[in-house]
Amino acid sequence: MATRDDRLRELGLWPRWTRRGESAAAAPPAVDVPDGAGGASREARIAGLGWESLAADVDACTACGLCRTRQRSVPGVGDGAADWLFVGEAPGAEEDAQGEPFVGQAGRLLDSMLAALQLARGRNVYIANVLKCRPPNNRTPTPGEVAACRPYLDRQVALIAPKIIVALGKSAANTLLDNEATIGSLRGRVHAYRGVPLVVTYHPAYLLRTLQDKAKAWEDLVLARRTLQAATVATSVTPVAGSGP
Ligand code: URA
Questions:
Q1: What digits encode the pLDDT tens for the residues 9-44?
Q2: Class assignment of domain 4-234?
Q3: Could you tell me if the CB of 84 is within 6 A of ligand 1?
Q4: Would the CB of 101 count as within 6 Å of ligand 1?
Q5: Is 145 in the pocket of ligand 1 (CB under 6 A)?
Q6: Distance from the CA of 113 to the center of ligand 1, in angstroms?
Q7: What's the distance, CA 240 to chain centroid?
Q8: Which atom of ligand 1 is nearest to the CA of 89?
Q9: Does pLDDT of 116 surpass 70?
Q10: Ligand 1 pocket, 152 CB below 6 A?
Q11: Closest CA to 35 of 4, 6, 65, 56
Q12: Measuring CA to CA, which residue among 108, 80, 85 is closest to residue 166?
């Protein structure tokens, strides 16, 4: 039977990672900026976008105040027809500078988690965030920002048509599942987002601080893989003519 250290090795987490000094700046109070870009008609327009126009649209978006503080928009990265969709909260400083999600320390851990599943960024995997622009000082997204950005995530889900979504952390899970539940209560079972099976796990940044939960994250990824495999088997079984009721 695999030991805890074996699982950590599979996650690329052995020898144990230590966190380089990272001081969390005090978050300013959240301020919602009204959606200035046209409610239902904007949603309908975004729902019709293709990949290229989606990225350009995100880049030109002024639907919330984050467009004023971002350096670059961060639409997402990966295989546009992936089976796996990983969703985080919002870009941080490095993502804001590079225009790609999960490129900082948490992203390196995410890459290790993907490798443990024999996956890689861009190979049957798409990585996105709930928010496409960085909140100043990495503060928690406001409900207004989440609402303004959701049409983009929904369009990504529709374009990718993933077989499994992995929500990384409480914020992404609560947004996608429209609840306030704790990670602990959401883990270990399969939820759904717009008809796609969804599994909740810890955010990689949390795992960098909380070594003891890395084994649980691996259990979550195994559940996600099992769910995907079951979905693949179910859709590849074609009914035999005349075998129905
Ligand atoms: N944390 C996230 O949730 N997303 C990123 O892209 C980076 C850090």
A1: 545 444 333 222 222 233 333 333 444 456 789 999
A2: alpha beta
A3: no
A4: yes
A5: no
A6: 14
A7: 38
A8: 3
A9: yes
A10: no
A11: 65
A12: 85
Exposure class string for 189-224: b at 16+ Cβ within 10 A, else e = eebebeebbbbbbbbbbbbbeeeebbbbbbebbebb
Assign 200 to helix, strand or coil: strand
**Cα(108) to centroid of ligand 1, in Å?**
11
Round to whole Å and give the CA distance between 186 and 182.
Answer: 6
Strand bridging mode 164-168 / 84-88 = parallel
3-state secondary structure of 74: coil
Per residue in 143-169, pLDDT tens?
999 999 999 999 999 999 999 999 999
Distance between CA atoms of residues 24 and 41, nearest Å: 38
Q: Is 229 helix (H, G, I), strand (E, B) or coil?
A: helix
> Which amino acid belongs to residue 132?
K
